[in-house]
Amino acid sequence: LDARDVLALCVASLCHDVDHPGNTNSFEVNSETKLALVHNDLSVLENHHAHTTFLILREPRCNIFSNLERENYRSIKSTIVQAILATDMTTHFEVCKRLDGRTEPFYDRSSKADRQEVVNVLIHSSDLSGQTFPTPVAAVWEGRISAEFQAQAEREQKAGLPVAPFMKNLDDPVVRANNQVNFIEFVLVPWWRSVCRMFPGLREMGCFDNLINNRKHHAERAKMLQPQQGGAAAAASAADASGDSKTEKDTLSVASADRSSSNATDSFAAAASAGQHLRHEASASSVSSFSGMDDDDGDDDGVY
Fold it and tell me: How many CB atoms lie within 10 A of CB 176?
């Protein structure tokens, strides 16, 4: 990355969720909100975050780009906007598949498009990093996103709107634990496996090891709580999280093949899916590398 790319990445990281209303794009679209209307139902919140970022930067006291030449400003603005839009989870599986197919050298530093993709990958990785922290920190993120999802589900039920499967029954700790296992397995592992391959320093920090450890933690928690929970919702979620033997073998082989240290960055993904919903998304996207252990912490903005 050149100096402009780094500056753009820092600003995009700081502003990628500015003025977030605490609900998902689906909620905005289904509720037919003003934001959804303004942005034509397309990446509603991400467009809002980018729009709000540059409204703030237009303020004289906030305009850190005021001394830049117009060409440099336009270049940096474009990088920031594209980076923020890249946090939309609807493109996650497509990008993951593309990353999985890259070989060394992974990027051409002279290519503006390649440098933009690096910026996009880094900010999306940060957005999906909640479960790459040590378990005590990851658990805090999980609690926060679950509370946010519960609040949205209640609003949707009252308004007669559809409720996403991964937002249902979150008062049941077994359901929450199994949702987390599915999210890590099908969304986060494939993503972080590719990202750590391209940026070995992240593996050395322990991101991937923490991810595997957190999946194990959630699975063990679900198993431990299962007898206490009895209910149909818990049973259905447990059955869904069990997966097939191949998935489990892949999980274990990934865990044993990737031993390092520990630490990382930010949040989850409000457009991601769990349980049967996640499995459907993975197969519908025809992402072959997700057949086993594929999971990327996904924040759009929460933290599984």
Answer: 26
- Cis bond upstream, residue 105 (ω within 30): yes
Q: Where are the alpha helices (DSSP H) in the chain?
A: 3-15, 25-31, 34-38, 44-57, 70-85, 92-100, 112-127, 135-159, 173-183, 189-198, 200-204, 207-229, 232-242, 245-257, 275-284
Instruction: Please tell me the distance from the alpha carbon of residue 302 to that of residue 59, in angstroms, as a whole number.
Output: 29
Residues 125, 230: Cα–Cα separation, whole Å: 36
- The per-residue pLDDT for range 5-20, each reduced to its tens digit, is 999 999 999 999 999 9
CA gap 121, 96 in Å, rounded:
9
Q: Is residue 274 helix, strand or coil?
A: coil
Q: Is 146:176 a contact under the CB 8 Å cutoff? A: yes
Round to whole Å and give the CA distance between 207 and 216. Answer: 15
Angle between helices 245-257 and 189-198 (to 10 degrees): 30
Question: Do residues 12 and 79 make contact, with C-beta atoms less than 8 angstroms apart?
Answer: yes
- Measured CA to CA, the distance from residue 19 to residue 60 in angstroms comes to 20
* Range 19-23 average pLDDT: 94
pLDDT tens track for 255-277: 333 323 222 223 333 334 433 34
- Which one, of 127, 129, 123, lies nearest residue 5 by Cα? 123
